[in-house]
Structures are given as C-alpha cells and as structure tokens.
C-alpha cells in the first residue's frame, strides 16, 4: 500500500496521512487545486456546449454567479452568503464527515442536518430567522450523541470500503446539493448529470484537501473558488 498516496490513490480509498504537510506545501496544494477547479469548470462547460450542439442535452436556465433572489440584496450580504457562509456550511457538512477529529465530525452532523432540514422545509439557510434558529437548535442536539457511538462511526468509516464509499458519496451529494442552481424542469437525466458534474468533481478536490491538510484549508479553498467569480461580477 502507498504510504503517502496522492490524489488518485485517495480516490481509490487509500488513507491519506493528515497534518504532515508544511505550511508552504499546504499553500501550494490549495493553489494547485484552485487552478484544477478552474480547468474542471472550463472542460465541463466545453462538454456541455458540445453535447447541446449534438442534440444530446437540453437547454437549461442557470442562476448564474448570483441567484435571482439575491440580486436585490446589498452587496455585502451577497458576499457574506456566497463567499463566507456557503463555504463554511458546505465544507463542514460535506467534508466534515470525512474528518477523524471528533469535534469536526460532530459539527459535520449538525451542519448536514441543518442544511437538509432547511432544504426540505424551505427556509433560506443563510438567513437568521426564527425558523432557521429553531432548525439549528434541533440539529445541534446531534452534538450530544454519546462519544462511544461517534467513535464507532469514525472507526467504521476509516475502513477501506467504507472510506472509499464515503469519499465518492460525499462528492456526489455535494454535486446534487447544487441541483437548485438550475431549472431542470424540462431536462433529461444526461443534462442533469453533465450540469452537476463539475460540482461533484470539485467535491472530490475539496475532499482531498480537507483530509490531507485539514478542514480549515478546504474552507479556505472553497472561499477562494467562490470569490474570484464575484470579483468579475462586481
């Protein structure tokens, strides 16, 4: 077994030693992954255009850089939600479950439950309201799961088959989390899959950074990935 696996070995489920990188190597990996995400987004956009021209996929409407409901908001709120809150919530939810640190794992359960409940019942998870406060309080009960149970879950997910499944499942779930960024009302399965492909692939890149360098670095990477389109928009 590779004792220091790279990204592609990580995708096969090999364990990645955490916390062994220097600050410079962490910064280098973060920049490299940011460039990789730009390449992924460009290639997938090109694939979407080709498939549409060949009549394989249908035209869809995207919310673009700024969702419709945000366009009347003050700019500071748009930046707060897209550049700060979205990376924080999404990384703790989708990459936090990959962490062996028990505190991060518990926070991941809370974030994931909060996002799912908000999605089901409709409140904007970025806004502070009585509904979101109530949902957050309910989700926070997961913090009180007994330590012996969380320890068993963490131990189980570190076994190769479960680790492999969780890596890919979290990335695919991250892709589908962005389903409502598009209007798929008249789209087929191929159109949906191709439209969400870049999010899922980027989810794998986020996961590698989170496992290798720590969750704070994947949050930083996510902030940077969401920030640069905002610079162009402003």
Primary descriptors:
single chain; 234 residues; mainly alpha; two-stranded antiparallel sheet; 9 helices; 68% helix; globular
Characterize the structure shown.
The protein has 234 residues and is an all-alpha fold. Helices cover 68% and strands 2% of the residues. It has nine helices and two strands. Strands 1-2 form a two-stranded antiparallel sheet. The longest helix has 31 residues, at 23-53. The model has no long low-confidence stretch (mean pLDDT 91).
Summarize the entry for a quick read.
By secondary structure, this protein is mainly α. Helix 3 packs antiparallel against helix 9 and helix 7 packs across helix 8.
Structural class: mainly alpha
| Count of individual beta strands | 2
**Mean pLDDT value:** 91
Note the main sheet: 2 strands, antiparallel
Provide the succession of SSEs: HHEHHHHHEHH
Record the SSE blueprint.
Elements: H1 7-11, H2 23-53, E1 61-62, H3 75-94, H4 102-121, H5 130-139, H6 147-157, H7 160-177, E2 182-183, H8 189-213, H9 215-233
Antiparallel strand pairs: 1-2
